[in-house]
Write a structure and sequence with these properties.
This protein is of the alpha/beta class. The protein has two domains: 111 residues, Alpha-Beta Complex (Aspartate Aminotransferase, domain 1); 228 residues, Type I PLP-dependent aspartate aminotransferase-like (Major domain) (Aspartate Aminotransferase, domain 2, 3-Layer(aba) Sandwich), CATH 3.40.640. It has twelve helices and twelve strands. The C terminus is likely disordered.
Length: 394
Amino acid sequence: MSISKHSDADGAPLRDRRSLRPRQVLGLLPRYAAGKPPVALDGIQGYKLSSNENALPPLEVVREAIIEQSLSVNRYPDPATTTLRAELACVLDVPAEDIVTGAGSLGALNQILAAFAGQNDFDAPDEVIYPWRSFEAYPICIGLAGARGMPVPLCADGTHDLDAMSEAVTDRTRVILLCTPNNPTGPALGADAVDAFLARIPPHIVIVLDEAYQEFVRDRFAVDGRDIYRSHPNLVVLRTFSKAHGLAGLRVGYSLSQQVLSAHLRLTAVPFAVSQVAEHAAVASLRHLPEVLERVQGIVAERDRVTTALAALGWDIPSAEGNFVWLPLAADTDGFAAIAARHGLALRAFSGDGVRVSIGEPEANSRFIELCAAYYCRKATNFPAEIGRAEPTV
């Protein structure tokens, strides 16, 4: 009888003495927690305010483009996303060669890290400085790239501590991430502050300006990456179609940088990362940009209604320049989120820090304001039944 080297005499498979072992970094990474949908409750309309999504669907013309392109999904997309880059170049008034697309702005960020920060042979890993708390995918992406994340705490008002970030630079620093408006706290970086920061950073360090929420910014002193990247060869700007354009499910974003950077980013781009459906949907949306921006203004108006109401109630919250607001609830974070869930609102809780609340449908925003009014006045979990409807059973 022939016995396989992978089996014992009875034919049972032998257990390999070596277990499957992923890279050690996987055990050290934080887990990304996506925003959850509302719990289904009897007799109450639930609202998802946990993912900073656009509550409105894409424009009708964009939906038509999606349907049209769905007939071609048996074919690979254009790996250079030529049509989208040409349209972006026209809208932004920049060279198409300065644009590199990716699977959302997060995909574009991974291209940057793959090109400029990681683990070097027989040497300590590169360092990436980033603000914290900020976008929770940052430490995950940095770790997977093989680099060492260097978080710098935010200021008390939810803004970047740019002085501390510049002081954190070492000879191992390769990339610095800036998030404006900062997710989840909300403030945008000022143009003068960013200019001063860039002047303090050595030119060989890549500065990433993550502007996923740029269309919602109304602070006239805020930085605009498109206006400054031409003056800074080491600056790369990230943007996305997920938020303002309402295309989060299609995963399309891009980076904007001088060709001394963009040439390297093309080498690390995942082939075919942007589908033809996503590309042509984004193009259709850009070709109807005034309608998109009109919708954005409606979201901004709702954001201002929420922040004005919270201020009148006595809440002290950071400046809100994205499509969300931040409640710095500290130890009360989980309790507040649980109460909101019992009233049909799914919020994004960062335990021990605060709650991020996306601006959603007007009805959802009104219910959130009522919840905040009751919380601020009572400082307890015994909320009135009239918030949203009669108290649901959970």
